Amino acid sequence: MRILSLNCQKDYNLGLPPFLTKTLAADTYDILLLQEVTRPVLELLANSKYSVLNVFDEQVRQQSELAIAYRPALTFRSHQFLSFATLRPEMPIPFNHAPFGALLGILDYAGDTYAFCSMHLDSGIRSSVRVLELMRLKQFLPKDVPVLFAGDFNFGLPGELSRAARLLAPDFHCATRRLGGTLDSRYSEYANHLPNKIARIGAVFGLGVKLRADHFFTNALFSRGKSLSCRILPDRVSDHSPIELVTSAQTAK
Amino acid sequence: MPRASVESLIKPDRYQVFLMACPATFPFTFATHPWLVINRKGIVSRHGVGYRQAPLAQRPGLHSCTAGCAGHLHKDSRAPSEGIEVFPFFVWPTWNGHVVASIEGGEGSVAARMVEVIAGSAQTYPYRHRYRFLGPNSNTYAAWALNQFPESGIRLPWNAFGKGYKA
Considering its fold, how many domains does chain A have in total? Predict the structure, then answer.
């Protein structure tokens, strides 16, 4: 099974449509877990042989920016959505953050049932919001089926990945613990909050940081009897690099 | 030396109880605001009392409540190490919480029994629908949970006003 996770950065980077067109035509991946998808990206997916799961976020009354695209070899069973839109308090006027949440798709593949989750955590400077989201996510995910969840965790502060791994243990294990940086701040778009503003100023002078923001997590049922290998793709299609996970049958030593 | 965050102290194979605290909201920063974080073999939850009642706290932009909240007693409405608001009526910034004391153990230990009591406190804490400045308040709740297990050796600090509240 080959799975791709990508933050589409709301179709901001010109390299995204050709990359997605090429990827969808090549039929390389069984599942694409996407974040920050916009209408043009959904149209690209709709015009391919992939089926698309995208839901309406009732909490903020708008279309969710999370999507799961899967090949016809997989059969849809059910879905659930957990919104994180209201978990970050803002001053002076509270407002919602529509992109954040977790979209869970229960799919059948080769006679087995799997749970795949595309998720996007808060992008602010307060790690406590992400911790709270992870706690909610851990309760939200099913325990009795193989689970894989991936997406943009927005980990940027020192030790955040270790703390998250401890919070999600023992149910879930990070498959991308040793993967390098995936978010390059030089390619961030302008947005009206502090991290993006700092990133844009740095980019003017060619300065940027690489953060290990994107990850794959699996539970024991998913990784049992399988060998998981992850890598960062070299394509520059958004401020995030796409990451892929390939499963193969474990060989006895 | 920086204080260790509670998330880095979690052991997925143990029962743990952490007494967390931060200063109270300005201008009462001389007082402390405590809450309890429990770890039931990897299942981490936060339990504490706040002045907002659960239905009122569930407004967009504020920390949303979970099904485990009851009245003023909140479960997982904030991250384990996030304190309360620094200034009244402003949801941000918030204090950083620190670990005051902790206890851990295996099956049948004091920590395991404390975890069960705290996890079920939404149904058993007598003052969950009542909040007053000098008690019952967040200190009353922490004292109520800790006083049931004097063998834990965990005590609230002197500035936990309301810990001695009696109805």
Answer: 1
